[in-house]
């Protein structure tokens, strides 16, 4: 899948043609990062960004004691990817993925939700164990 930031300076391909999962995250960190009610991330197996991309990295601690690396475009500031020091997945910000099918996204960290979760949606009060 093709990924691009808002200005197009950061472009790369995901390692799979379809994400392993898609989450609407309602945690307070995603609310702040997205300046909205939630952030949406597509989950992929770990992969490295091409070395020549114009990205900067902001790091922050996670609730479970890991470090989250948050990559964003140096030009437009759009967050494009998160990678945990746990090393089990990479989350690409879904709004940057061209042609992504948003159907079936799960809701996580709903204990922090500021909007109602749709009836019948798969949801978790915190993060899923898988």
Automatic annotation (TrEMBL):
| Record SUPFAM superfamilies | Mss4-like (SSF51316)
Identify its protein family. Belongs to the Gfa family.
Q: Which UniProt keywords apply?
A: Lyase, Metal-binding, Zinc
**PANTHER family associated with the record:** CENP-V_GFA DOMAIN-CONTAINING PROTEIN, GFA DOMAIN-CONTAINING PROTEIN
Q: Specify the CENP-V/GFA domain's residue ranges.
A: 1-110
UniProt keyword Zinc present:
yes
The record's section on Pfam families has: GFA
Q: Which GO terms describe its molecular function?
A: carbon-sulfur lyase activity; metal ion binding
What high-level taxonomic lineage is stated for the organism? Eukaryota, Fungi, Dikarya, Ascomycota, Pezizomycotina
User: What's the protein here called?
Assistant: Glutathione-dependent formaldehyde-activating, GFA
Source species = Aulographum hederae CBS 113979
């Amino acid at each position: 899948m093709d990924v691009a930031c808002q200005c197009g300076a950061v472009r790369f391909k995901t390692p799979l043609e379809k994400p392993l999962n898609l989450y609407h995250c309602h945690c307070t960190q995603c609310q702040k990062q997205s300046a909205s009610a939630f952030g949406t991330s597509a989950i992929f197996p770990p992969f490295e960004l091409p070395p020549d991309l114009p990205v900067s990295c902001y790091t922050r601690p996670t609730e479970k004691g890991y470090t989250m690396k948050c990559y964003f475009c140096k030009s437009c500031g759009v967050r494009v990817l998160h990678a945990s020091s746990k090393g089990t997945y990479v989350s690409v910000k879904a709004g940057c993925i061209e042609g992504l099918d948003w159907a079936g996204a799960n809701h996580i960290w709903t204990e922090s939700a500021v909007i109602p979760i749709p009836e019948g949606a798969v949801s978790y009060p915190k993060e899923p164990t898988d």
